[in-house]
Amino acid sequence: MNPDLQLRDIHIPPPPHWWPPAPGWWLVALLLILVAAGLAVYWQHRRRRQQRCARILAELDQLPTQMQGPTLVAAISALLKRVALQHYSRAEVAALTGEAWLAFLDRTGGDGRLRHGAEQLLTAYAPRLEPHADVSALVEYARLWIRSQRSCR
User: Fold this and answer.
1) Closest CA to 145 of 62, 60, 65, 71
2) Three-class secondary structure assignment of 5-67
3) Rounded to 5 degrees, what are φ and ψ at 113?
4) Which DSSP category does 3 fall into?
5) 126-150 pLDDT, tens per residue?
């Protein structure tokens, strides 16, 4: 090396400051905010559905304590119809009665259980039903059908 050249040592520049962040970090922050907002909306919607389901099931649990016989079966059928109207079109559900109503219930969440027990109660809930008939199978069926709907999943 020649001492006459008067060369200086290499100077490294100072490290960059942390603020303002690079554009990629702004995109990551925006993405995280959008994901958090989406999750918040999802959980709020899910919580409302679960609360609605809990209210419906609580109403179902109260029915046997308030009435019995044909009026209880009619009230359970009306409750099932109200829930069905929340999830399916009015044109599809509103006019259903008798066998068509039972077929709809089995098709939309009953898995055939209605045809093997509680059917006699729903088809005969008029005056032919005995006042002290055991409707616990119908109540259990209604509970299972309501839980199978979108609002309870």
Assistant:
1) 60
2) HCCCCCCCCCCCCCCCCCHHHHHHHHHHHHHHHHHHHHHHHHHHHHHHHHHHHHHHHHHHHHC
3) -70, -30
4) G
5) 455 565 566 788 888 899 999 998 8
Q: In angstroms, how far is CA 73 from the centroid of its own chain?
A: 25
Of the candidates 81, 57, 83, 84, the one whose C-alpha atom is nearest the C-alpha of residue 139 is: 57
Q: Which residues contact 144 (CB under 8 A, 6 or more apart)?
A: 109, 110, 113
Q: Could you please report the per-residue DSSP string of 65-79? A: HH--THHHHHHHHHH
What is the residue extent of each domain of the chain? 51-152
Convert the pLDDT of each residue in 45-99 to its tens digit.
999 999 999 999 999 999 988 887 778 888 998 999 999 999 999 999 988 888 8
What are 44's two structure tokens?
A: 């709020």
Phi then psi for residue 139, to 5 deg, are -65, -45
